[in-house]
Description:
The protein is an all-alpha fold and 138 residues long. Among the domains are: 46-95; 98-133, no CATH class. The protein is 79% helix and 0% strand. It has 5 helices and no strands. The radius of gyration is 37 Å and the shape is rod-shaped.
Amino acid sequence: MLRRRTYRIQFFMVIATLAMAIAACSPKVYPSGLEGNLFGYQKNFQREQLKRKFEATRNNMKMARQKRKAMRPLKAQARAEEKMRKQLYAEHIAKQEPHVQMRMKQNLKETEKKYPSKNTLRKKLLFWKKNSCPNGFR
């Protein structure tokens, strides 16, 4: 009885060893790409690597495009709100007396000069040109 059990265990061990040897030598379904790079025999390794890099870049660009597309309505709404705010401010200035209007406009100019980062490049260039030339635009 004991001998039969040891034969069964030995038979099981032989089968397990053969199965592991066959599995280790067989080609992998999903190679990682690292094995061929280490030993230098995997064909087209660099091409595959570049292909994966290109796919990743293309996916990143696609995600950035989708993000920009999703943000468009929010940016348009922010622009509309800013436009409305400026319009209301201009109407408020127009309702004031002339000397108050002058003072408010002067304050607005000083604020724009003090915080120029909110201005676009075009606005900054126009402001620079206006203030650098003695008679305004040339």
